[in-house]
Amino acid sequence: MKRLFILSITLLFLCSANSLYAKKKRVDLIIRGGTIVTMDANWRIIKNGSVAIRKNKIVAVGTARSIARKYFSNRRIYARNKVVIPGLINTHTHIPMTIFRGIADDLDLNEWLTKYIFPAEARNVNERMVRIGTRLGLGELIRGGTTTYTDMYYFEDAVADETSKAGVRGVLGETLIDFPAPDNKTFDDGLKYAEKFIKKWKGNSLVIPAVAPHAPYTVSQDRLIAARALSDKYEVPLLAHLAEAPSEVEFIRKNKNMRPIEYVAKIGFLSKRLVAAHVVYANDKEIEMLKRIGVGVSHNPQSNMKLAAGVAPIPQMLKANLRLGLGTDGAASNNDLNLWEEMDTAAKLHKAFSKDPKVVSAKEAFQMATIGGARALHLEDKIGSIEAGKLADIVIVNFDSLHQTPFYNVYSQLVYTTKASDVHTTIINGKIVMRNRRLLTLNERLIKKQANVLARKVVKSLRTKN
Amino acid sequence: MKRLFILSITLLFLCSANSLYAKKKRVDLIIRGGTIVTMDANWRIIKNGSVAIRKNKIVAVGTARSIARKYFSNRRIYARNKVVIPGLINTHTHIPMTIFRGIADDLDLNEWLTKYIFPAEARNVNERMVRIGTRLGLGELIRGGTTTYTDMYYFEDAVADETSKAGVRGVLGETLIDFPAPDNKTFDDGLKYAEKFIKKWKGNSLVIPAVAPHAPYTVSQDRLIAARALSDKYEVPLLAHLAEAPSEVEFIRKNKNMRPIEYVAKIGFLSKRLVAAHVVYANDKEIEMLKRIGVGVSHNPQSNMKLAAGVAPIPQMLKANLRLGLGTDGAASNNDLNLWEEMDTAAKLHKAFSKDPKVVSAKEAFQMATIGGARALHLEDKIGSIEAGKLADIVIVNFDSLHQTPFYNVYSQLVYTTKASDVHTTIINGKIVMRNRRLLTLNERLIKKQANVLARKVVKSLRTKN
After folding, report:
1. Which residues of chain A have a CB within 8 Å of the CB of B315?
2. What distance separates the 2 farthest-apart alpha carbons in chain A?
3. Does the CB of B250 have a partner CB in chain A at under 8 Å?
4. Interface of A with B in 429-448 (CB under 8 A)
């Protein structure tokens, strides 16, 4: 009798457990037990939270208990004592130039360009260099928890190919410029290349093709408009440098008798697809106009400082709620692709410059590097926060290193003390591309070897006279 | 016959090898095969170099071959593909405050101090907190390759004890202030404590005791002079904050109708033993005076930025060849003890602020963090460069991480791309305190645990009303 009772109880339990189990939905990956900094509209932070991922999307976010009730997966990452954040978004770089990292520093912009960068580019930029430089940069991005980056360079099809192979998300545009480029000798050839490039990559799960006219001082009026038209035709982002340096302001004043933003507005270049890099020289009226049109802005504090370009009016842009993200610029100027340092610098630079320790808080700096960057790229419905329905671009950060101890406030800790080396795991489009600091889609040792060989050639090329 | 010939040749060889060996001098440690950035007066860089160390001193520096000819040691560190630099020197911090790292940010100085820092200090600073905070900070310093640091706080005898136990070099001074301090309720008690402290530690191989009157706006005129007299009496450094923030400038203008530096000069506080922290508000005449007297200056770029204190005239100070070093300030304000980021920031900040990309070169920034810091502390005959006769404070840095690839210029790479996490080995006073990123004199796990427990108490203490 007693045995029968125990048997029936056991059966009952198994049945209910089974029915409970059957009700649970299977997902491909669960991140479990970390502090989740969602960056959603409510700034929700979930302690002991979980994220359920199916294919390349986030299915659910919540407390570890609530997710465990509804979802199961054979693949789990335990994030206890770690912080789970949206992947960082780099809104401006020239990734193949990572090969030129540290080639020349502390020079006048003109000397830097004409004595080092232009000759180095003229003598070394080809598809092979672009591929090696891109892989080098991609490795650094992944190791620093950047999951989406924005690029404008040459041989961009090779950049896209490498980016897609490494499993990184990229908004990538072939640079269009009035001078002969390493791959396209005329602007029109460049434009044709860009159209072909867009057709090839449009719809790709990782690469978002873009059009990238270099800047209003290096691309003539008609050509700026032609580039914008191409962006409109295919509904792809338009990338350009804008209002970066005093020399540009002076050039456009001299030639057009206008301010840079005033000029591009007047000729109809400003568009809701534009991602404008730098935007150092913008007054309140211009900020208002950029906001109204929906232009995205990429703030590159370290590059602007190092090249003495100026200090962008970021407190004003934040106040105007502009689509505002952070970029590293190329490693040739800055000299890395580290968004953690850009966040830290952004928060500090504007306090110093505006003499107000309250501007650009840690929260705002972290916002710029995540959902702000997504808004700048016009991708805020897809990336930039950890929310159900968004793409699974997620980074898990160690929070227990000595330099992060003790821990009072999560945004402060992320912006002021966390380093790129604290990134533990990087997930892009649902796929783990780095785990426990080991790159899974790139051969780090080979990349370093190839980059070093190439760098020796670059040095040699700069020694020759022509 | 043939055998005899071979035997005699062998004997001859062994004898000569033995006599060669006998001629070699035994040392305690040889660092072999790295690129040595000596920071000596000739800026000598030795590729494939070696450093021979006996007891706590550098005996010889040269090419690996030349050192191998003259010295041998049973203890060797191979530094192939690595860079060997003088240990970094932090010229201003408040190390126990590492416990308050990130407790409050992005606030007005006044609000930050009165709502957070002062209450947190009043309710938590005791000898135990000072010891735990010091160990936490020391761990971070060693992990970042800082071998000498400068401190002013309370319970400084406990700071000195922990510093000496951890094997770190410190210029340490008990803070003297007009208000009741956690350990000494009156200024006179503080002064007595300071004298006792100096007597106890003077002559120690690691701890250099100092006198540390807080600042000209928190210590009255007579007391500043009394502090200076104590420094002169025992020939020890005099540490103080000076000309840091607009509020100080305003306070001294109001009360003394002078500029801060003008005031301390007039009352006879400036001395050749003074290490003045911040010195943001200094005009050309004042810089010239500091130079003439031999005052050391500690530049704290990140702290000055984050607290919106202002931007120090560093290009002018470099031009005047002032005794100029770098400091991190306390981790409560900045929020780490990372001199690599201070170097990087110093080089970039002054380019932005002076609108000149040539000022504060990588070379100058690295100089500030090494021999410049030694000069600021009046210790340039003992530390700050890798030269025979100097104390063996040496750091070995990895130079092959992905974010450091490729490698063109050593100073650029050190300042613009190397991170604290690239430090491989830290040697202080001839003793290895970190090897392959493992702390050898501190228990990292225990430190983190104790710091986290303490931090929870700090949070609780701020919730209570009194």
Report:
1. none
2. 101
3. no
4. 444, 447-448
Residues A151, A170 contacting (CB under 8 angstroms): yes
pLDDT tens-digit profile of A211-263? 999 999 999 999 999 999 999 999 999 999 999 999 999 999 999 999 999 99
Checking ipTM against 0.85, whether it exceeds it is yes
Pairing of strands A431-435, B25-26: unpaired
CB < 8 Å to A139, chain B: 402
Distances from the Cα of A276 to the Cα of A235, A239, B137, B406, angstroms? 17, 6, 41, 29
The neighbour count for residue A293, using CB atoms within 10 Å, is: 13
B 362-401: CB under 8 A from A: 362, 400
Is B351–A302 a contact, with Cβ atoms under 8 angstroms apart? no
Is B357 touching A (CB cutoff 8 A)?
yes
What are residue A151's DSSP bridge partners? A93, A172
Mutate to test the interface with A, among B83, B97, B99, B106 (most CBs of A within 10 A): B106
Can you list the domains of chain A with their CATH numbers? 88-379 (3.20.20.140)
What would the two tokens of residue B263 be?
A: 């005031």
* Pairing assessment for the beta strands A296-299 and A71-72 based on DSSP bridges: unpaired
Mean pLDDT across the stretch A188-217?
A: 98
> Would you state the structure tokens that stand for residue A280, as one six-digit string?
């150092």
Within A267-412, residue ranges assigned H as helices are 284-293, 301-306, 314-319, 331-334, 339-354, 362-369, 371-376, 410-412
The answer to whether B306 contacts A102, with C-beta atoms less than 8 Å apart, is no
Confidence of residue A13 (pLDDT cuts 50, 70, 90): low
Contacts of B442 (CB under 8 A, 6+ apart): B135, B138, B139, B142, B166
